Amino acid sequence: MIRRKKKFNFIDLFAGAGGFAEGFYQEDFNALSHIEFDKYACDTLQERMKFYGYSNSEINNIEPTDITNENIIDIIDVGVGTNNVDVIIGGPPCQSFSSQGKARDKNGMKNDPRNYLYESYIKILNHYQPKFFVFENVSGILSTKINGKLIINDIFKDMKENYNILEDKMDIIINASDFGVPQERKRVIIIGVHKDIKKDFNINALDLYNDLKIISKKQNTTTVFDAISDLPKLFPGEGTDIIDHKPSVLNEYLSSLRKKDEKIITNHRSRNHNKQDRLRYKYMSENNWTLSELYKNVPSLVHEKKRLFNNSYVVQNYNRPSKTIIAHLYKDGNQFIHPDHTQERTFTSREAARIQSFPDNFVFPCSRTQQYKQIGNAVPPLLAKHIASVLKKYLKKIYKNDI
């Protein structure tokens, strides 16, 4: 357990398993409230709050909550009390804005109620009026139309009522791989600065993005090899919730995820795979083949569902960042085939968590299905940490006489 230092306060909306919050925890921010609908994600949030030394009453405040509840402000107030709210973070569920979600829905997700969950974010934002906010979502939110109108224009308009923001997609689309995360993950990150802060302290949104650009230029590219090559080798069906593990050497990336004296690894269990899939994984990873190349070279492994595309089965390259980790991992891991052909399998939860930059001591106390969902839906903690570090810099300027 880590003993907390009282610093700046944040509210976490659409909290999920706490990937966004983790980055703020690591920068010594104090969570006043986590709002999350999913029971299993709440269990994970509680587990992490124990690690950071929150009280039993604070931990017990975390329970499944519908953000559209008419009493949501009263619910959040239980945690806020008399504290200042410095930052609000979060982003509504992205399925209705994602290209995959639109492709699967015959109406292109136009009737999905999740399109309007951002309104709850804005409601809470305008009530507490923190000094800063951070809003995260998939890049598809920029092109989503409802009744012929771009929904992002309404979001921008509502945010600008009390906040200074940037609207240019060249500024607000951020790739996690530029910040040391071993994953190509492009997301819309809207950072707002309260208009009073802009006026009184001469701080605007552009300053924060410029600081992030400076940080990104100092980061080395982190690869899949950097992230997972030390983990115990597993065949399909092998592994347990806790495995003895103490790497002899920690590279720069792993040094940020685990301490030298840690002796275990958690959530490192492999799925069972059928014989045909094991052969597909083996040949594709050994030869660096696409699915089409596999079919051409080994016709006996053509899948019975012949309408599969190259992105249906994908080997992640040891020498590059991974493709975007997605919640679909809970259904199958075929887009995340392990690059070591001798293991003949897809990523474990811990490997996905490593790719997402979760610390090794971050435990997911739920089924493997839920672990994959939570990891795939999360904001990478390392990216969140960099954002938190920038906000902390300006909060210190604002509070310079009080800290």
Report what the structure shows.
By secondary structure, the chain is an alpha/beta fold. The protein has helices spanning 19-26, 39-51, 56-60, 72-80, 99-104, 118-128, 151-159, 169-172, 195-201, 205-217, 224-228, 252-255, 275-287, 291-297, 349-355, 368-377, 381-398, and strands spanning 9-13, 30-35, 87-90, 132-138, 145-146, 149-150, 163-164, 173-175, 186-194, 239-244, 264-269. The chain has two domains: 9-221 and 379-398, 3-Layer(aba) Sandwich (Rossmann fold); 224-377, DNA Methylase, Chain A, domain 2, CATH 3.90.120.10. The model is unreliable at 98-113 (pLDDT under 50). The strands form three sheets. Strands 1, 2, 3, 4, 7, 8 and 9 form a seven-stranded mixed β-sheet that branches. The chain has a two-stranded antiparallel ribbon with strand order 5-6. Strands 10-11 form a two-stranded antiparallel sheet.
